[in-house]
Amino acid sequence: MTTDAKRHDMDEAALVAAATAGDENAFATLTHRHRRELHVHCYRMLASFEDAEDLVQETFLRAWQKRETFEGRSTFRAWLYRIATNACLDFLARHERQAIEIPTHGSEPADLSPHVAWLQPYPDRLLERAAPEEAEPHAALVRKETIELAFVVAVQFLPPRQRAVLLLHDVLDWSANETAALLESTVASVNGALQRARAALRERQPARDSHQSFDPTSSEQDRRLTQQYIEATERCDVAALARLLRDDVRFSMPPEAVAFAGNEAVVQSWVQGGFGSPPYDAWKHIVTAANGMPAVAWYLRRPGDHRYHAFAMDVLRMEQGAIVEITTFDLAHLLDAFDLPEMLS
């Protein structure tokens, strides 16, 4: 263990002792260290940025109220994860949310698309803060494949406890023993739930090139493709947009229960929705990033107005130089999370 790590552990032990004795400042310092990674964990459990915010607050409230029960048999971080996971399970028990499958327009033969009405994107600027410090070697890594929208959506189809087992074991790299202890279950039960969850997840996640995430040229390629997408949209150039989309591209707009598949069907849905014609023909943008993917915040200027108002956010999944999926959200509900303005002049 490095000198910095030892110092961190000593500092952590002193803070935990003070916090459990009722020192509010020590408690605030401890919880601040783990706030962002707990938020990401709750987001994966719930697929909603706003609900995750509420559940992190609930976690810290419960932790403060139960601070005297922390006995030090686990780390303070693990104790917070236990409380956060249980808070999410309680939330899911109170709210009857059902991920469903909906018909996909344009697919031949007709297929079904997953639909999670409460899905929200997660800003990359906050994901960066969730990455572990060197002094915290066991802190959760924010791996791209476990934060993409496709993964978060697929997880919502799992029963809540299976969801928790999968996230704790396969995403946070907790052992079966640690996961069982956190969920007050048995190792055999955890292993069984994990097996079922993995099988269900394999069926729902989109097929992709397994080497794509490790392609050192993909980031620059994605930036160029994003810029081309922006330029074509601002020109309202439908033909240019179509050339950027893969033949089997998919498009959805949560919370609307509608999905399209195929280049022609997706582009036609935009045209039929009014894209390129007044009042949907004057655009400005801000480039951002969500769920480890490029995203574009769109602002629309309507006739007679000199300002561009928040309209939509497109989250783009790309593979090998083509856009393979576009998920569009109402931008007005995401401004605070992404630190974006309400209007552009």
Quick structural summary:
The chain folds into two domains: 3-204, Rna Polymerase Sigma Factor, Chain: A; 216-344, Roll (Nuclear Transport Factor 2, Chain: A). The protein is built from 13 helices and nine strands.
Structural class computed from helices and strand pairing: alpha+beta
Helical segment tally?
13
CATH hierarchy: architecture of the largest domain = Orthogonal Bundle
Helix content: 40-55%
Q: In CATH's first tier, which class of the largest domain applies?
A: Mainly Alpha
Average pLDDT score: 90
Tally of strands: 9
* Tally of separate domains: 2
Ranges with pLDDT <50 over ≥5 residues? 1-7, 134-141, 209-216
End-to-end distance:
54 Å
Helix and strand arrangement:
Layout: H1 3-20, H2 24-46, H3 49-65, H4 76-94, E1 100-103, E2 112-115, H5 124-130, H6 149-155, H7 160-171, H8 176-182, H9 187-204, H10 218-234, H11 238-244, E3 245-252, E4 259-261, H12 263-272, E5 283-290, E6 293-300, E7 308-319, E8 322-330, H13 335-338, E9 343-344
Parallel strand pairs: 3-8
Antiparallel strand pairs: 1-2, 3-4, 5-6, 6-7, 7-8, 7-9
Question: What can you tell me about this protein's structure?
Answer:
This protein has helices spanning 3-20, 24-46, 49-65, 76-94, 124-130, 149-155, 160-171, 176-182, 187-204, 218-234, 238-244, 263-272, 335-338, and strands at 100-103, 112-115, 245-252, 259-261, 283-290, 293-300, 308-319, 322-330, 343-344. With 345 residues, the chain is of the alpha+beta class. The protein has two domains: 3-204, Rna Polymerase Sigma Factor, Chain: A (Orthogonal Bundle), CATH 1.10.1740; 216-344, Nuclear Transport Factor 2, Chain: A (Roll), CATH 3.10.450. The strands form two sheets. Strands 3, 4, 5, 6, 7, 8 and 9 form a seven-stranded mixed beta sheet that branches. A two-stranded antiparallel ribbon has the order 1-2. Strand 3 and strand 4 form a beta hairpin.
